Amino acid sequence: MQQESIDRLQDLKSQLLATRHASDGWSMKGLQKEIDELEFYKSDKHVVVTGGAGFIGHHLVEHILINTNWNITIIDKLNYASKGFSRLRSIEAIFDDRVTIFTLDFSQPLSEGVVEEIGDVNYILHLGAETHVENSITDPKPFVMSNVVGTMNMLDYAKTLPNLECFLYFSTDEVFGPAVDKSYAEWDRYDSGNPYSATKAGGEELCLAYGNTYRLPIMISHCMNVFGQRQHVEKYFPKIIKTILEDKTLEVHGYPDGKKAGSRFYIHARNVAAATLFLLKEGSIGEKYNIVGQKELDNLELAQAIATCMDKELKYKIVDFHSDRPGHDLRYALTDNNMKELGWETPVGFEESIKKTVEWTLENREWLDE
């Protein structure tokens, strides 16, 4: 723990002792919460983040660097979606002494040399995965190798770590399949609509099996549609911005009648990162948690909101992509009761998140290049 954090902790403990003598219950609770958070976030921990050069992964790395004193080891094979180390350079993580990077493919077991170099680990945040639905429909094998076999390899590695406190597997709302008129809870049945979501469900089950069989400290999160700065242009949010800037017509996926667009719940990547650290502190081993999007918008409403932020006209047409290419579900939805019971609140609001992301992207248009 850095000296500044140690001094702050001692000061808070002195305040708490004085408050107890004054019998002020409200002040005690506030001070004790701050002490607990400081002891957790400013402790000397080591976290492994798979997929740390990717979109959500680099936001998580940035959030850890800003809010903790932890050392970070990133494992990433740098596929096309990682865009090399460009995201890590952009947040200056690649130059940080607390960050170590291994460029390797965890669909192969970690070598003895790599394991030795990584050293002791307290947390594994397993975000690394193949995630593009369309690509999984075209060729499922890379998804099986990364999301199922790769997860098994990371779990086998986790078995060798004597001080591991949590292996958090980052899953998706898509494992439950389409949510036409309901929202799914964490332990509802799987009904994967495409090979991508099926492989994520397979990874979940492996995690649960390793928890039951080998007593690994497993936790699972399901996330919804994530947006934010430095997202790959193949994703819907930056694609909208790019299409509007080029004065082209946006194809909006919708229902067969061509009148209603499909919908999603959206959440900013830094809110996801905040929720992940929150779960490491407050979550229970062996449990699943839904990190729920802040607001449901149909695909057209999102595009219109972005166009408004850009002060531009939106040209669009609703297309029936689903009927021609099954595997693209028109709606996903999750409940958030477990997170609410823990006291989770999203740090940054939805409208502010959209505004910040659009403004940043317009100022950094190189991220819209293919």
Summarize the structure.
The chain is an alpha/beta fold. Helices cover 45% and strands 16% of the residues.
**Average predicted confidence as pLDDT:** 90
Q: Report the CATH architecture of the domain at 44-227 and 271-292.
A: 3-Layer(aba) Sandwich
User: In DSSP terms, counting alpha (H) and pi (I) runs of 4 or more, how many helices?
Assistant: 14
Specify Rg, calculated over alpha carbons. Answer: 21 Å
Helix % is 40-55%
Major sheet: arrangement of strands: 3-2-1-4-5-6-10
Helix/strand structural class? alpha/beta
Distance N to C terminus? 42 Å
Q: How would you characterize the overall build of this protein?
A:
By secondary structure, this protein is of the alpha/beta class. It has a domain at 44-227 and 271-292: NAD(P)-binding Rossmann-like Domain (Rossmann fold), CATH 3.40.50. Helix content is 45%, strand content 16%. The protein is built from 14 helices and 12 strands. A 7-stranded parallel β-sheet has the order 3-2-1-4-5-6-10, with helices on both faces. Strands 7-9-11 form a 3-stranded mixed β-sheet. The longest helix has 20 residues, at 3-22.
SSE inventory with pairings:
Blueprint: H1 3-22, H2 25-41, E1 46-50, H3 55-67, E2 71-76, H4 86-90, E3 99-103, H5 112-118, E4 123-126, H6 133-138, H7 141-158, E5 166-172, H8 195-214, E6 218-223, E7 225-227, H9 236-245, E8 250-253, E9 263-268, H10 269-282, E10 288-291, E11 295-298, H11 299-310, E12 316-319, H12 321-324, H13 337-342, H14 350-363
Parallel strand pairs: 1-2, 1-4, 2-3, 4-5, 5-6, 6-10, 7-9, 8-12
Antiparallel strand pairs: 9-11
Helix pairs in contact: 1-2, 3-10, 7-8, 9-11, 11-14
